């Protein structure tokens, strides 16, 4: 499963809740339950595919440069349509704020991945009816279930280059001032863009490592409801054993619906709301996926690191991924231990636990690719070629000659405090209640300022979202789980050499020197026994009433702690901004050199904004000399994997339909039955989950939901021979709806006639 992948882990309350996804060991040893998918040497071979995808998650405005390539691959409409994010087909593509999705009917119906609706299932589950296991199908519109107050759909409506307004006149500005001035300018642009318009959200996003900025305007839909998610035996079939591996047999799909007020304007959840009417929606493919055919993915990929330097890649290889792997292993063990004691903790931690398992496997693959796969070394080689090119011309040497060396020096400086910095970041977001208290304290501080001087995320425009995040937190909160996770972070920090311990540790525990588990438990007893922030009503009231006076008068131990930590956290952030400002002065020169070296054809790193990637359906060989994997899997292979026990426990209705060969019109020539998943050579990353896979006509032919373990490090360097995306075939989606779950009303809404 793909999700937005953290590089430096975020610290906001909202992002504490955002972990979700998966990863693995390698295709050679995968699939112990069966599922052979290699092409046989005696099988007739199709002509070799001449197109070799060079990679690239392209901004819509860059698609003009690929027009001829797309035409040669069979694009059946004007490539210029792909340059406009508000036209068809890109106008149908939306963001869920961490996953991608698409409108598929004029009635606001949205298709995305199953793992992208984990929170919707979690929020509506009980130990007696766990939708995470059982799935859900709303028989009528009235049965569609709210995703909660923080559920969102973002529809992009404008995309404007504002680089000059953000960066102009910053030459010579001191390092400790530059980041702040950039933030102030972005904030002013956002304020002017929104201009008090209800339902409009604007962001100013950084591209090319801060060398370019675009203002993105979006309609924010706030009433989003769960319509349909299949049983976990389809939606999560294979679990972490199959995750990031091929062959794959996972029905990773689900449906939501966006609602608005009767006036058509975005509105909070209400029984009186009506379905949103999108300007564009995708139609189910009439030309289905075949080997070698053109496919495109349009979505909101999260983060890649291809424009980072070799020094940054080496630090990730040597330290970052190994550290995070150890952390995730420990967190998973702690959370599973609490879950064994209370089924409610299992539901509360479901989304986060799935995310941790996802990142654990993904980061193992990332580390292996950087180290064993030689990606870090390849990154250094490529950078050496760039430096040689720079030095081959006196004008280039004068302009760019020292930039790589200076950036390497700054990266080296950060290594001196990396353990302390990482532990600091973990502790300040180590508890959901501490994160909530921090939000309350910070909002109180910001409210004392004129609105235009408040920090981003703390302005009047943000207060409704902050309130809804406070409410949404309840679905993820369990007191024993929260305490156990916070305890682990404190224990990890206490084990560091004293010189590497963050100041927040001693502030929380109340002592320096040797810190024992008993010291940590005493501190946690005071916090959790005395707080009422675990109550959603109390938490929301505290946020709404937050002011310098209420914070000072509060007796809640978490609010008191957050107030005590605030100056420490602010100073830490200030030091980070100085380093960021220094790098911000260098990166534009580095990016300018890269773009010149590549003759301008350089995709920016993914940054959660709308992108298009294109390629073909094709298999791959996982290693030198290994057989080539075929690009399609089939339902009979799923049956061979089925054991009746998780994660290989397909529902009986699916097994019966397969046994009876009730395939209807959903068969594929390549497999002679219903296809499940297919491979393509597309360039994707976390955040692409749920992205529409489009055919040459712009029709919906599948949904991307994963990548392959051998190519995890392609986030750093794209590797054409082995980088593959994994998609659920739209024929399998329709077959499950028709033959397994009886979702005839949704098929009809999609323009498909039920036939089984």
Description:
The chain has 756 residues and is an alpha+beta fold. The chain is built from 27 helices and 18 strands. The strands form three sheets. Strands 1, 2, 3, 4, 5, 9, 10 and 11 form an eight-stranded antiparallel β-sheet that branches. Strands 13-12-16-17-18-15-14 form a seven-stranded antiparallel β-sheet. A three-stranded antiparallel β-sheet has the order 6-8-7. The protein is globular and about 70 Å long.
Mean pLDDT: 92
**Proportion of helical residues:** 40-55%
Major β-sheet profile: 8 strands, antiparallel
* Structural category: alpha+beta
Radius of gyration: 25 Å
Tell me the overall shape: globular
Report the uncertain regions: 4-35, 40-49
Count of runs of 4 or more consecutive helical residues: 27
Characterize the quaternary organization of these chains. Answer: single chain
Q: Strand-residue fraction? A: 5-15%
First-to-last CA distance: 30 Å
Number of strands: 18
Pfam family, one: Peptidase_S46
Signal peptide: 1-26
Keywords: Aminopeptidase, Hydrolase, Protease, Serine protease, Signal
Enzyme class: hydrolase
Strand and helix layout:
Layout (H helix, E strand, L loop, with lengths): L12 H4 L50 H6 L20 E3 L4 E4 L5 E4 L5 H6 L7 H4 L1 E2 L7 E2 L6 E9 L1 H5 L7 H20 L5 E8 L4 E10 L1 E7 L2 H4 L3 H4 L11 E7 L13 E2 L18 E6 L10 H30 L3 H6 L1 H22 L3 H17 L2 H7 L2 H13 L2 H11 L3 H16 L15 H10 L6 H16 L8 H7 L7 H14 L5 H9 L3 H6 L3 H41 L13 E6 L15 E3 H7 L10 H8 L15 E6 L11 E3 L5 E8 L17 E5 H11 L3 H6 L7
Antiparallel strand pairs: 1-2, 2-3, 3-10, 4-9, 5-9, 6-8, 7-8, 9-10, 10-11, 12-13, 12-16, 14-15, 15-18, 16-17, 17-18
Helix pairs in contact: 6-23, 9-11, 9-12, 9-14, 9-18, 14-23, 15-18, 16-21, 16-23, 17-21, 18-20, 19-23
